[in-house]
Amino acid sequence: MKKFNIRKVLDGLKEQASSSASSGQSGTQENNLMQETLQSENFQLCKTVRHGFPYQPSSMAHDPVQKILAIGTQSGALRLFGRPGVECYCQHESGAAVISLQFLINEGALVSALADDSVHLWNLRQKRPAILHSLKFNRERITFVHLPFQSKWLYIGTEKGNIHIVNVESFTLSGYVIMWNKAIELSSKAHPGPVVHISDNPMDEGKLIIGYESGIVVLWDLKSKKADYRYTYDEAIHSVAWHHEGKQFICSHSDGTLTIWNIKGQGKPFQTITPHGKQPKDGKKPEPCKPILKVEYKTTRLGDPFMILSGGLSYDTVGRRPCLTVMHGKSTAVLEMDYPIVDFLTLCETPYPNDFQEPYAVVVLLEKDLVVIDLAQNGYPIFENPYPLTIHESPVTCCEYYADCPVDLIPALYSVGSRQKRQGYSKKEWPISGGNWGLGTQSYPEIIITGHADGTVKFWDASAIMLQVLYKLKTAKVFEKSRNNKEEKQNTEIVDEDPFAIQIMAWCPESRMLCVAGVSANLIIYRFSKQEITTEVLLEVRLQYEVNDMESPPEGGGGATPPLPLSFFLSLSICRVRSTPLKQSPGYQVDLVVQLVWVSGEPPQQITSLALNSSYGLIVFGNSNGLAVVDYLQKTVLLNLGTVELYGSNDPYQRQPRSPRKTRQPSGGNGKDCYQDRKQIIIILSFFTPFFSPISILFHCCNSPTVFRYCMFVCCVYSLSVCAGALPFCALSSTVLLSVCPPRGANPLDYRDNSFSRSRSSSVTSIDKEAREAITSFHFCETFARKGDSIITPCLYVGTSLGTVLAVALNLPPAGEQRLLQPVIVLPSGTLGRLKGSILRMAFLDNTGTFLPPAFELWYEPNAVGADSEERDKARKRRPVSVSPSTSQELQESQYAVVCSEKQAKVIALPSQNCIFKHSITETSFVLRADVVQMNIGNCVACFCANGHIMTLSLPGLRPLLDVNYLPLTDMRIARTFCFTNLGQAMYLTSPTEIQRITYSQETCENLQEMLGELFTPVETPEAPNRGFFKGLFGGGATSLDREELFGEMQAGKASRGLAQHIPGPQGLEGMKGAASGVVADLARARIALDERGQKLGELDERTAAMLASADSFGKHAHDVRKRDITL
């Protein structure tokens, strides 16, 4: 029987009373507040664009006239690429893998075949492609698809060895079927295997070559419905390619050989080549190699043909990377790839298969990259890829999204990022250049920042639904590399395989200050500079601070313990900062490094929250133990407290004391007993100069916070004076490392676990026996520090995992030199309020409803000299003035704090600290991401819940404006990377390689059609190759085939009903021609109309001629009848 708990009943009554009081108070306050401008009609949710490399690609196709590329994936997605900035994403509803793609060349349509044996026709003449027809096979599995150039009949090969023919216009099956038992010899009893290749002879459309997996190739005569020739080889076939003259074809086999056959020679292959096999001297057959998965045979008018193949390497090349081989004349080039090859295509000058191909590039689709090779230049250089396909270069670990950035920010990042580009690319323009850009009016700058597992931070220009990399920062350069495998093994016990992985980022676009937190419990603060510098002095300040945290001392541990050796403390850091001079290129340059170290044998907890304020010169970070405030201007730690100490004597929770237990010892250390329960500050200074050997000083002080701050300041000044000969602090070019360990709470527990099973209290008034309270969010602001204050002051608001919002007052010295000399005073000032669930976001509004952004400092060149340095000093002396609330006496409240947690949102009036609005966001789920965002005509709260709902709430009334069940949470990647930003934009990592951008703004949704690019543009099809006088006189040129007569219902009959099911789309092929939109589409429609008009005029002429002929016949017949009557 369930135990009855009177406390929960009382808590429920209290909650009801407080909610009713809050709602009543809300009603009285609502009339006094500002008018809300945002309404539900201002919001609409839709996807905008997807960026990045197609995840798990499976197939590829290219339109040589339109110059667009299509890539299919194993999840049924289609990605289409034109010129840089023209991209499109489509999705098959079934989600089955795309096994083959075929363009209707220069027709604005695409055929896709899926692993679920369905075939689809896509209309590409509209900005968002749609399916026109679908055909689902019921009895046979599709293995190969071929669509000849300028043909409407699609050949489909199956696993049973049969070939079916589909009319692309109506998507109906023809009664013409090539059965496998008729294609092979009647004497052969074995099944030839699935169809692996179908193609028609370039010079004779009536001849079809069929390749079977077992090694049999059949030349089929479509008119006579029988096999002309059969070619047999002992090894399995993977692909077949024609010579453009149609007299030879080449096959690739599973033993690494290529066989070249004459179409009239059935016995043996004309030539057998083993590109990577060792040729024995005794003339025997070469040793078998790996299978050649694909081969293409392309001819040139003035030179030797190209044979391009993937695979075929020797088995003894263990560990060799995948290769693409280019054989041209007597030369053979082996091009190594970084990832396995999925498919490749050769780009040629002509779409006609019966002409000299003139190949100029090869598109290679890899598992995680897209490479285009220039065949026209020596050495086969690759083209510089203009698409944003390197998002996954290292796995993405976190993202940030900023809209409406300063206008000079993107040019500044591009200028320093352009110097990072690699050299040696092809000098030609990118060959995939089809489509047209959109004509949207959205012009505000947008920037996406991605943090990666290897410590890289990438800045992307995301303006106008495009994406382009601007700048790449490598944070791992700050740290030393592991010297031996032993150290690496020790590190893997502490962190994951990527010790430099970025976990959280904080960025100030106005000042360009950047702070990143790594998975190894370190912080790196960067300044942006356009000048290159070399850090000549590297100062390390390792600080450890522990307070009495209710841990019982070990038995018998009463005596004093001697100091530990310095090497022990140095071994406790996971990542060690470089001790050699660091050359820093223009861009982001290291200003300060903060490293958490071990405490009492326990590794540091990962950082869970981070905030930066450039106006105050402060960084604050927190974890599951507490928080630390760092002054990055003075290089000092201002506050280092556990979460419990922020409450002071007003802690509302009864926390269980931690029981004594044996301390865990980090690998490599041997000071277990003497390090277990020390209550003191330990500071280790290690500074390096070009003239002195490394000097290390170990300080032991008491655990008083006042002495702690004073000792920190004195040590910094002392070390700088020793290193630089008592030069002024601001004149040094130095990188500083602060190693801090906040005090521990209770049992170590990673707050950001990989599941959503962690408990969440349903009532914040319950007497929870929680010993640990993690820091989950921060917000710098200028507001009222305490209840009833009359003036606003710089403050830091802290949110915890138990739903508490705490205020910390900041007393800053005047700007200028005094800011660098006088200490910053940090003082906890009490509790603002409590909510259900962890605090996710905090923001402030003034009494008119205007969003109050945190104060910031405008960017200045930190390494300026001469006249520029004077401007820098003037800029540093100016402290930005925040927007002050109105001094009108009519309004009782001057500011409103907006607080959002995992369960609810509140609006609190300041300085009275009364809750005027409260809204329960979700009861059955919890909020993963929440932001207070600025729209064009107002502000709102945007939330993304774990159940997939995206919601917006009005401000300050917290009225629901939007609630859409958009995306059910499938993995932690979405929760880790989902971001809201201003002006109704959001994004998340939809796969390990792709970013999906969405909008919840009605205005953006309405303008999206204009913003999207167009894939199809009206282009004239090149003229067919000239047959020449003698070929036209004596024959020998390409012969055409009337496929309509051969495959039509009149000649071939109807197909079996149960073979496939036709699923019509929303529009037919005629509808496809008129579905395009925009100026380019109008031209296309005009062209189509002219063609149709000409066709109708031609039909009218034919009818007129027929009527004249009929009249003549009637006249002759009447004349004959008259003559007969006269005779009679």
Automatic annotation (TrEMBL):
Please give the biological process terms from Gene Ontology that the record holds.
Answer: exocytosis; Golgi to plasma membrane transport; protein transport
Cite the V-SNARE coiled-coil homology domain residue spans from the record. 1068-1128
**GO CC term (a single one):** plasma membrane
Its principal location? membrane
Query: Which Pfam families does this UniProt record tie to the protein?
Result: Lgl_C, LLGL, WD40
Q: Which regions does the record annotate with the repeat WD?
A: 230-264
Which region ranges are annotated with the description Disordered? 650-674, 869-888
Query: Transmembrane residues, as ranges?
Result: 681-699, 711-738
Q: Name the keywords, alphabetized.
A: Cell membrane, Coiled coil, Cytoplasm, Exocytosis, Membrane, Phosphoprotein, Protein transport, Repeat, Transmembrane, Transmembrane helix, Transport, WD repeat
Subcellular localization(s) per the UniProt record: Cell membrane; Cytoplasm
Q: Example GO molecular function term? A: syntaxin binding
Recorded topology in the membrane: Peripheral membrane protein
Q: Which PROSITE patterns match?
A: V_SNARE (PS50892), WD_REPEATS_1 (PS00678), WD_REPEATS_2 (PS50082)
Write out the similarity annotation: Belongs to the WD repeat L(2)GL family.
| Name used for this protein in its record | Syntaxin-binding protein 5-like
Q: Which organism is it from?
A: Oncorhynchus tshawytscha
